[in-house]
Design goal:
Elements lengths: L1 H13 L3 H6 L3 H18 L11 H18 L5 H6 L2 H25 L4 H12 L3 H11 L3 H29 L3 H11 L3 H11 L1 H16 L1 H12 L5 E2 L2 E5 L6 H15 L4 H24 L3 H7 L2 H24 L2
Antiparallel strand pairs: 1-2
Helix pairs in contact: 1-3, 1-15, 3-15, 4-14, 4-15, 6-7, 6-12, 6-17, 7-8, 7-9, 7-17, 8-9, 8-13, 9-11, 9-17, 10-11, 10-12, 10-17, 11-12
Length: about 325
């Protein structure tokens, strides 16, 4: 637990470096990478080598603090902000999310032969908001630590790759910065990556990128509930009767996330309160990512093979092509 605290502070500090800001490596992906490196290093020298299961402290960070961080994200959103972007941005986000989930889950299960849980986690990470969406979906999917780690790794890889490709696309396409910002927000994986991509274009692109990305974050709750109802009802079975289906349980933090958005829409909090909430959310999410990275074995990623990478690559191409197409159609 103290070591994860140090990793978290290091990740938050490094994320403020100008070079890493340009690369779009926020504190969350940095914490994952630092956690994985330190975990692999400690295991290589024999420290904690016999621990086949994560410690209770690291699990607390990975699960409880992660959910706290997701709830607090809601205080950065308002329904008024979403409405200000217009119906086009909302339509683009909904279509992108639906298309990526449909193609990703279908291709992953039927054509690549992946497990249902891993296909869903990989797809939801690309469709909604990266690692946070994967972790929020896991209680419904019940995929386990290994599959969560693999899915998050694909988000870090292809989300970071987008930061190299999008500035080139902007120079080629010659479209308005505000419109390109909507494209960024509707297709880039992580919130931090969307912010970094928008900053490389212009202040106008940054503003629309953030708002469009926040619409996708707002879609997290209905996505999790819908996936649970449509794909994972068999996970909700009665222990004494395997054929009896129990009602879908909505994760409590998803409910509180929506309530946080509602509260922030109705009540104007002081700027100091927003700063405290933002820092607490960022710290909670970062230490959760550090714990997940620390508990990840490199052998897990190797054992996963090429299938998750192929699926993530397919979804990456789909995000770019569908996002560009929808933006050009709806904003011309």
């Amino acid at each position: 637990m103290p070591f994860l605290f140090l990793i978290t502070l290091l990740a938050i500090t490094l994320a403020k470096h100008p070079f890493l800001i340009e690369l779009g490596l926020g504190s969350l992906p940095l914490a994952i990478l630092l956690g994985m490196i330190s975990g692999a290093l400690f295991r290589s020298i024999g420290f904690n080598q016999s621990a086949s299961q994560p410690s209770r402290g690291s699990l607390f960070c990975q699960q409880k603090l992660l959910r706290l961080g997701i709830i607090l994200l809601g205080f950065g959103l308002t329904f008024q902000q979403v409405a200000a972007l217009g119906w086009q941005a909302f339509v683009i986000d909904v279509v992108i999310i639906s298309l990526v989930l449909l193609v990703g889950i279908t291709a992953g299960i039927r054509f690549l032969g992946m497990s249902r849980e891993l296909a869903v986690l990989t797809s939801v990470g690309s469709a909604v908001c990266g690692a946070a969406a994967i972790m929020a979906t896991e209680p419904v999917v019940k995929g386990g630590h290994r599959q969560v780690s693999v899915a998050v790794a694909t988000v870090v890889l292809f989300g970071s790759l987008s930061l190299l490709i999008y500035p080139v696309l902007f120079n080629i396409l010659h479209i308005a910065p505000e419109q390109f910002g909507i494209f960024i927000g509707s297709t880039v994986h992580e919130v931090a990556q969307a912010v970094a991509a928008g900053q490389t274009i212009s202040p106008e692109a940054l503003q629309t990128a953030i708002m469009t990305k926040l619409i996708r974050v707002l879609c997290l709750a209905p996505v999790v509930v819908t996936l649970g109802m449509l794909l994972f009802r068999d996970k909700q079975t009665s222990p004494d009767n395997n054929t009896k289906k129990l009602p879908i349980t909505i994760p409590y933090f998803i409910i509180f996330f929506v309530l946080a958005v509602m509260a922030n829409s109705l009540v104007s909090l002081p700027e100091t309160a927003h700063d405290v909430i933002h820092f607490t959310s960022q710290f909670s999410l970062t230490i959760a990512m550090a714990a997940m990275g620390y508990n990840t074995h490199w052998s897990t990623l190797r054992e996963a093979g090429l299938k998750p990478l192929l699926l993530a690559a397919l979804l990456f191409v789909l995000l770019i092509s569908a996002g560009l197409g929808l933006n050009l159609v709806l904003y011309t």
